[in-house]
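Q: Hi! Curious about what Protein HGH1 N-terminal domain-containing protein looks like structurally. Here's the sequence.
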Amino acid sequence: MATELEELVGFLSSPSPPVKKAAVEIVRDLTGSEDGLLSLSKYASTMLPSLSQLLKDKKEVSEPAAEALINLSLNSNLAAKMVEMGMIKTAMDVLYKPDSSITRLLVMLLVNLTQLDSGIVSLLQIEDEKMQGLFVMKLVRSFCRSSDETRDDPFDHVGSILVNISKKEAGRKMLLDSKRGLLKQILRQFDSTSPLRKKGVFGTLRNCCFEAENQLQNLLLISEFLWPALLLPVADI
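A: Let's find out. The predicted structure is below.
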């Protein structure tokens, strides 16, 4: 006989919108506590795919689904399962839909998932030669384009994603690739008024400097942006 939690997780796939909405809100609330998260984790194989599908639903459903996934992804085992089932691709696909209404939440989910090595590999698309780097290029473009549009910028947290991926050699090489010009774009945000954005820029730059010995030529190519970014914290401006 199914337990109450098992039935609740089953309702996430209900054809009835009101039932589905009520179920995802309860799941979201349960993930806010350690006990609730631990109890739900037993049903991860069913729950995670259902929540992933709900990201594509209307905001009243997709928002609590995204909030639940963010909470669940704080657990490294559950985060690893999300990466394995393709959650990063799903999040990126939904993030760049024209009618996406949960941008900030999806970016925060990506921040959590790229805490894992497997999450970084997935975001870099290392195993797909034709698509390699596309996700990162999209995120950098959004990070750089959105900075002046609003004080409450949903792409501010992309800076944290860039810090995460630049902790790995493959990520640093991608950001330092002169043909892509990604680090050059990122460094232009060094004088942002957003503390979160600044922290992301400087953290990414610091990590990329670990490749200085192997990537000196590429670093010199962006020196006009590199020196101001390096000297600004020293000047305490």
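A: A fun detail: The two ends are 64 Å apart (CA to CA).
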